[in-house]
Input
Amino acid sequence: MDTAGYVSLTRQTGLWKEMQTIANNIANLSTTGYRREGVVFAEMLEALPAEGGGVAMTAARVRFSDPSQGGLTNTKSPFDLAIQGRGYFMVETPDGERLTRAGAFAQNAEGELVNPDGLRVLDVGGAPIFIPPDVAGFSVAQDGTVSADGRPLAQIGVFDVEDPNAMLRQSGTIFDPGEEPIPVDDPVILQGFIEGSNVNPVSEIARMIEVQRTYELGMKFLDNEHERIRTVTRTLGQRA
Output
């Protein structure tokens, strides 16, 4: 395969990765706290000492998460919490502390506040939040203060990172902070609400169509390039 073919293949590979990302975004339209994912393309320049000049190849190696706010839904459930503005909840995983915007929480058998996967939600000091099983009233103030029957128990931690690009998506809504998280000053937590996905279905479908058409044009170019090489080879063979 000649240089033009290799350049086109790198472009096709990047477009395929972007298509997978778009498909994943569309699949998570209804996922609580999901952050839209995008792909960053990079250009790599290589010198061609034999032919002279250079060649540019593309790579889609970096993914980023859109930090914009998702829509809020009033569920009236006391354990459903949503962050308005910046920040993430912190949960305890087997791999360490992780961040999430998905606030559909519940109380486990031990009385601890957990997410749907059973991961414990942590307070501002990094400790699990225990709720007595016999309380009649459970409330969470906007600053994250958890109270049972009017008695403060803990304060839910809301954290952020200085460099959002350092965060790595570990699973659908769980992020590895990549650096030491810092507490958010004056967080706003809404009890009885959950934050939905921030994926815009119209823009994602429009982008999917654009990527698909661009991919098809790339395949057409590869087919034409293949036919050109076959024609040249056949012609040279006839003259030999």
User: Anything to note?
Assistant: The first strand starts at residue 37 and ends at 47. Residues 72-195 form one domain.
